[in-house]
Amino acid sequence: xxxxxPYNVGEAARLSNVSAKMVRHYESLGLLPTVTRTDSGYRQYxxxxxxxLRFIRRARDLGFSMAEIAELLALWQNRRRPSASVKRxxxxxxxxxxxxxxxxxxxxxTLQHLVHCCHGDDRPDCPILDELAGERPAH
Length: 139
What we know:
Layout: H1 9-16, H2 20-29, E1 36-37, E2 43-44, H3 47-61, H4 66-77, H5 83-117, H6 127-132
Helix pairs in contact: 1-2, 1-3, 4-5
């Protein structure tokens, strides 16, 4: 194997820090172009595909959806792209993360209140279960 591949799916996965299953999944979604295969049917990846897999991995680590990643990949591969398009996707993602964080903070506050109200003893009364069952208000 030389410095530019070809790599089998396991090697490409290792080099990009993505599981072999996810490499095949990204290919099936069209995030990776269909790669060449050996006569015996094994996929062969080059440094270009490994670089693309690293891009996908970093985007997933930042929480981008598959649809967003597809859009970002298309922009990344288009050298004539306007950076405003990339910034729009990232800005929308930040707003979605902010909304999710606010939602999680509200869930945490409610759960903290319920934990505070629960005696946690041998009695069967439990405001946590009552709230989950819709039998009493959380506040």
